[in-house]
């Protein structure tokens, strides 16, 4: 009987047109497909936990895959790593119940957005942070970010092109911190709309620039006016940082 | 009268064949030459503080340059950054006395070597750390590294091809620390021989592997036997981290 395997990976997204397979553009999923085929001899269906954009990174990402392959979990991790390029790494593999779905079962996701905040760029953050030259007041932005917490209609913070119709999401936590010149926005929620984190970041930047008032955020949940929110921050600063599933999924051993 | 300008830069060395100009290979110095020529309209002599190898990085690096250009220091920084690629950044520019030399006046240099110590690679350290899969005992290596401290003949820790004949150097400090899976070797001294830091790291790794006894280090200062030291660790983990000049250089204003 086919096993349902859940793989944990991380990847540097710079070279890829996101996770999802695309026509005429290399995706993380394409490269995983090649590695899985090389290891098992068979093409498999790979279901990711999230559609990340071009250039977006993942410190933790999961996909599931049904397979007839008898390869043990640990050996699968090693074999895939041997067939993957340096910018993708498989961290874990575990068997999950047949009905487990990497995307639909995700209870919580955490994203981090990195900003190198200094007049001069940092060559070591070229592909992993936004370079923002003007002063950022992290205490001000941290207070502003608290307006994102709660259950809201985030339709104003969503790019056109997403397929969802229900734009209500719950944000559990949103904060801005500084370590030296690196300013980090961390947001944790039950789900995120297309480009939502990047638009939340763009909104914080425009609050810093005096173009958006922090007090105007709640009205955007009502109006759904994309034009009232900030610009879409560039992708290279964004990391999918953590994906949480109910532990119960991992206690049940499949028959 | 020509000013002598000291520039502080940092760079990600991945794309470059070291700092020094080479025939048929792109160096950091080549790219700086192009930017300086673009900004001033004239080709200048650029003297770096150190010859870094291919793939080695610098968090802090200095070069000096004599110029007739009237461009003020701050404007020079901005103009060069506008003409440089993302993996090189100019951090500072200051006028120094005519006899100041970026290499010969350096009193102290600090290098850092990063090791990602985990069974699985980290895509975010692909070009900025050595991936080392086997367990490293940082306390053991820290004790072993203390044998490098002092004034010694480091001839055994030097690759052939260097031009120096005096292989005596003074190491002020050498330590190994761990933060999670990242193990860092930091060494500070009055100067370093060709490949010296990478060979010190290779020696620590071979101590960890039981191939070299920590007690055997002092004898290598006497024998000068390169074969008794460890392998040359790969370049991508190495950073020139800090370069120190006597403050007195910066107090004297040139006439």
What labels describe this entry?
homodimer; 255 residues; alpha+beta; ten-stranded mixed sheet; globular
Verbal overview:
Two copies of one chain form a homodimer. Chain A is an alpha+beta fold. The model of chain A has no long low-confidence stretch (mean pLDDT 94). In chain A, a hairpin with a 2-residue loop joins strand 8 and strand 9. In chain A, strands 1, 2, 3, 4, 5, 6, 7, 8, 9 and 10 form a ten-stranded mixed β-sheet that branches. Chain A has six helices and ten strands; from the N terminus they run βαββαβββαβββααβα. In chain A, helix 1 packs across helix 2 and helix 3 crosses helix 4. At the A-B interface, strand 4 of A face strand 4 of B.
Low-confidence stretches of chain A at least 5 residues in length (pLDDT < 50)? Answer: none
Assembly state of the chains shown: homodimer
Helicity level of chain A, as a percent range? Answer: 10-25%
Topology pattern of chain A, helix = H, strand = E: EHEEHEEEHEEEHHEH
Please tally the β strands of chain A and state the result: 10
Overall pLDDT of chain A: 94
Largest sheet of chain A: 10 strands, mixed
Radius of gyration of chain A equals 19 Å
Give the terminus-to-terminus CA distance of chain A.
9 Å
Brief rundown of the structure:
Chain A has 255 residues and is an alpha+beta fold.
Give the topology.
2 copies of one chain form a homodimer.
Chain A: E1 3-11, H1 28-40, E2 47-48, E3 57-67, H2 73-83, E4 88-96, E5 106-117, E6 130-132, H3 138-145, E7 150-153, E8 168-179, E9 182-189, H4 196-208, H5 217-223, E10 238-245, H6 248-251
Parallel strand pairs in A: 3-10, 5-6
Antiparallel strand pairs in A: 1-3, 1-4, 2-3, 5-9, 5-10, 7-8, 8-9
Helix pairs in contact in A: 1-2, 3-4
């Amino acid at each position: 009987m086919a096993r349902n395997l859940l793989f944990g990976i991380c990847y540097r997204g710079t070279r890829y047109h996101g996770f999802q397979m695309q026509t005429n553009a290399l995706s993380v999923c394409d490269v995983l497909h090649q590695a899985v085929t090389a290891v098992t001899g068979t093409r498999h269906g790979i279901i990711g936990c999230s559609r990340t954009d071009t250039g977006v990174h993942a410190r933790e990402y999961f996909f599931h895959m049904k397979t007839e392959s008898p390869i043990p979990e640990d050996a699968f991790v090693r074999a895939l790593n041997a067939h993957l390029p340096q910018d993708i790494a498989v961290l874990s593999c575990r068997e999950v119940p047949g009905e487990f779905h990497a995307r639909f079962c995700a209870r919580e996701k955490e994203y981090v957005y990195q900003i190198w905040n200094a007049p001069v760029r940092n060559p070591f953050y070229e592909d992993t942070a936004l370079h923002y030259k003007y002063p950022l007041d992290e205490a001000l932005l941290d207070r502003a970010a608290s307006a994102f917490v709660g259950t809201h209609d985030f339709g104003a913070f969503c790019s056109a092109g997403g397929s969802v119709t229900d734009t209500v999401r719950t944000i559990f936590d949103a904060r801005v911190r500084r370590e030296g010149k690196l300013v980090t926005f961390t947001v944790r929620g039950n789900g995120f709309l297309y480009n939502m984190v990047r638009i939340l970041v763009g909104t914080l930047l425009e609050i810093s620039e005096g173009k958006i008032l922090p007090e105007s955020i709640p009205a955007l949940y009502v109006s759904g006016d994309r034009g009232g929110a900030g610009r879409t921050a560039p992708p290279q600063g964004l990391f999918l940082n953590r994906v949480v599933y109910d532990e119960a999924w991992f206690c049940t051993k499949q028959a």
